[in-house]
Design brief:
heterodimer; A: 271 residues; alpha/beta; four-stranded antiparallel sheet; 34% helix; B: 252 residues; mainly alpha
């Protein structure tokens, strides 16, 4: 929120975290700049979800400093986290949809519960509808999450994450367990969310195709379609990160990622 | 030895932390009254059949078992007094609490546990609500309100059960004498004890259920584990606390 050319939206400085003496993240240092996309790869259990939860203040690092929107949040009180979180959209790995609430109430939840986002009911309804139409689920308002397919639930999760128009989006394995066609639909939505609102995005994924889509395509509002990046003069700010047993094994540009000789990193690249 | 004690002590510490937040939250906004009423319905109305049955039969059994001893001493007219005192002081609160522990502590643990493992609790925090306020506090308020009422109902039905056995089945005494001795036997002390106990039990039952739910981990298996632990721990607390409270009242 400062006036630097590329202010850092999220930064970790030497962050270490463990569950009961067992280290899960070790000396993690990186930063995510405004408008940037950071693609996080890593084997199961390497600490990707934990990384996102620390960024959201759901877990507290045992060492190191975390900054969100330039503000030091390392020792922030839970009360004060709510305001920070209201600027962040998140899609959880397990979905995190409230299964006792209808789709409409799920998507309205952040608008009704974040004090900063309080709005008249009519506006809430409008934004919920717009958000669900964005993910092409405008007709499911009254259904319960259990009545939808896995891919549809993922889309509701995206609708709920973007309904607050956050500056920072965190996606945890948005395409895991989906067939390739549905997975590509989800990726197109994520791309659209990123490029229409220019949100900074951090995305955890197991598929190298997801990274490629984010790296090589842009959503073009005029034609409402995906276009190869760079054709309209806008370079894509994409970087890759690879986590290995809680350490950053690689972080760098797509070119560096593709040419990295480390076999551990190469496993996640598309070669 | 120290290592053996470390885990339970840490767990207890965590439990106290959650309890402190929930109890101090009772006097702070926000209030989710809809959730409170849903829980009252679930705990109160939902537990009615089982509380009615256990209340009635615990009184009936007591009259039945006491009949022999009372006949030996020729004191059968005192059956109402004995049933009333044991029911109101001890059996009513404890049996009702154990039933509610089996039904509702387990229900809370499994509901909150599934919410935990599907990241719904994380989502709540991420989307602007404090799970202690939204999930724990309504369950705490609802149980603390409903359990004393259920206990009074169980006490009354137990007396009715005792009356059926003592007067109708065994003919130990007349109905008017039964109700008279029962009523006169009860002192303020007994009533106070009989209402304080369910109130304290309610706090423990709901907090234990929520606590084990909210710390569940490891998928559906973890939810099952949390549910079992919640029922066992809540039930043990009930029998320990009834002794502690009884001890305080006896010395008063
Ligand atoms: N609640 C918890 N309690 C104890 N250990 C945990 C907990 N959550 C995660 N862990 C451990 O932390 C490590 C990292 O977990 P994390 O969920 O971040 O992995 P991940 O990279 O997201 O894996 P996946 O690709 O399977 O989602 C794992 O070794 C896991 O066992
Ligand atoms: Mg994960």
């Amino acid at each position: 929120m400062s006036g630097e050319p590329h202010p850092s939206i999220l930064s970790f400085d030497d962050v270490t975290f463990g569950f009961e003496d067992e280290p899960v993240l070790r000396n993690v240092t990186f930063s995510l700049h405004r408008g940037e996309t950071l693609i996080v790869h890593g084997a199961a259990g390497s600490g990707k979800t934990v990384l996102l939860k620390i960024a959201l203040g759901l877990l507290r690092p045992s060492r190191g400093t975390v900054r969100v929107f330039g503000r030091d949040v390392t020792a922030l009180h839970e009360r004060d986290w709510f305001d920070v979180r209201s600027h962040i959209g998140v899609l959880f790995q397990e979905g995190g949809l409230f299964d006792s609430l209808s789709i409409e109430d799920n998507v309205a939840y952040p608008l009704l519960n974040q004090p900063r986002l309080a709005a008249p009911q009519a506006e809430v309804d409008l934004r919920v509808r717009r958000s669900l139409e964005f993910v092409e689920l405008g007709h499911t308002l009254d259904k319960l999450p259990s009545e939808l397919s896995g891919g549809m639930r993922r889309r509701v999760g995206i609708a709920r994450a973007i309904v607050t128009e956050p500056e920072l989006m965190l996606y945890d394995s948005p395409t895991a367990g989906l067939d390739p066609i549905t997975a590509n639909t989800i990726m197109a939505l994520i791309l659209k969310g990123r490029d229409v609102r220019r949100a900074s995005t951090m995305i955890v994924t197991h598929r190298h195709q997801d990274g490629e889509i984010l790296e090589r395509y842009r959503y073009d509002e005029a034609s409402a379609a995906l276009r190869p990046a760079g054709t309209n003069g806008s370079p894509s700010f994409t970087r890759y990160m690879v986590l290995d047993q809680g350490r950053i094994a690689f972080i760098g540009s797509p070119v560096e990622f593709d040419s990295c000789a480390d076999p551990l990193v190469a496993r996640f690249a598309s070669r | 030895m120290l290592d053996l004690l470390k885990a339970p002590v840490l767990t207890f510490q965590e439990f106290i932390g959650l309890s402190a937040r929930a109890v101090s939250g009772v006097v702070r906004k926000p209030y989710y009254w809809d959730d409170v009423f849903v829980q009252m319905d679930l705990i109160g109305v939902g537990s009615l059949p089982v509380v009615i049955l256990t209340g009635f039969f615990s009184g009936a059994v007591m009259a039945l078992q006491m009949s022999r001893a009372l006949q030996t001493y020729g004191a059968t007219s005192q059956v109402g007094q004995i049933v009333a005192i044991t029911l109101v002081r001890e059996m009513g609160p404890v049996l009702t609490a154990l039933m509610v522990a089996g039904r509702n502590s387990s229900g809370m643990a499994s509901e909150l546990g599934s919410m935990k493992v599907t990241e719904q609790i994380d989502a709540m925090r991420a989307l602007g609500t404090d799970p202690v306020m939204k999930l724990v506090k309504p369950r705490l308020i609802a149980t603390a309100f409903v359990l004393p009422l259920l206990t009074v109902l169980a006490d009354f039905l137990g007396l009715v059960g005792g009356w059926m056995v003592a007067c109708k089945m065994l003919g130990l005494t007349t109905g008017s004498q039964y109700w008279n001795t029962a009523w006169r036997a009860l002192e303020y002390n007994d009533i106070a004890q009989g209402l304080l106990k369910p109130f304290v039990f309610a706090i423990v039952l709901s907090l234990v259920g929520c606590f084990y739910g909210m710390r569940a981990s490891g998928g559906t298996q973890g939810v099952g584990r949390a549910t079992t632990q919640a029922v066992v721990v809540a039930s043990v607390w009930v029998v320990v606390l009834t002794f502690v409270i009884g001890r305080v009242f006896v010395s008063m």
